[in-house]
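Translate sequence into structure tokens.
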Amino acid sequence: MLNGKTILLAITGSIAAYKAANIVRMLKKLHCNVHVLMTQNATNFIHPLTLETLSQNKCLIDTFDRNFQYSVEHVALAKQADLVLVAPASANIIGKLANGLADDMVTTTIMACPCKKIISPAMNHNMFHNTIVQENVKKLQSHGYEIIPPSSGMLANGDIGDGRMPEESLIIEYVLKEIAFNKDLTGKKVLVTAGATMESIDPVRYITNHSTGKMGIAIARAAMQRGANVYLIAAHISVTPPPFINLILVKSALEMFEVVKKEAVNADIIIKAAAVADYRPINISSQKIKKSDDNMSIQLERTTDILAYLGKNKKPNQILCGFSMETENLLKNSKKKLEKKNLDLIAANLLSQEGAGFAGDTNVLTLITKENTTPLEKMSKDSAAHILLDTILKLSK
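Result follows.
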């Protein structure tokens, strides 16, 4: 995902420096070239050898270290970098950068970098909220630095408050958002539905389906990483939604319909990946739902067909994509739905096919438009999401 990308990871004197090792490991797993720079104080918290082993690059600490191939090292690294990540960032390094001080390897290199810079503060709660530190943070933001808000919890000294460096996985999400993909969806509002709606029978029981929301969430994440303003309308989901999106949680098909109806008005792209329950109970009496009643019967009515509504009310230049989960006659049934519901694209899959289905991390999609049918190989849902978005972008041209 980060093939060909170079990140400079600057580590400063904070107890959270131990987390940097996992950040390097996660970036390398994404095939990123990682160069680590450390302040002298940072070496008291984590040994440079650990980071050199993980990054497979020399860890740079001393501006005047002669143990490298001849070049002005901080300038050479600055030219290579696609992104600078300072994690953890101490109050000291924030103050230096905010005021243009460059007196060590970390600050001189960062000052020489023209690329985007992301700062993850990590310090005591009271120190972070010191007015001088806050002024320095705002000053960095005014110069284009992105600040990752610290998380709350127990700090190193036992105090409770914000000041902790966030989990490494969230920091990686910031990196991916910035450099993983071209921003070809910038300025577009993308509306995605995901998950399984639930129709209550009583306070305990409900009608639903096996959808986990993984495919819809993968699409939302991919669109966000490509610069879109993403609205994710999620019913019951089994995975954590991505950051940096507008998340609206719903429960029933009717709730989803009302939110989608409102947000679809100014959406450029709508992708309905949610598995909406087809029926909801009506006219249920307390007598009918007694546990002792072996002959309980429930009267049902159809829920609102959200996709049909969207197709009927599609705006000019709006792209509408639906999903079709079939048990047989995949192409015939999906093409019929494409035409009947006025869709631009339908992503079809066969429930019985190995690698497809609800709960897995892979999918086997066939992308169908009015002109073309494109079967895809089995792949991760994240990869399928990007191919789906590629197809949508071609349709919008």
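Note: The chain has a mean pLDDT of 91.
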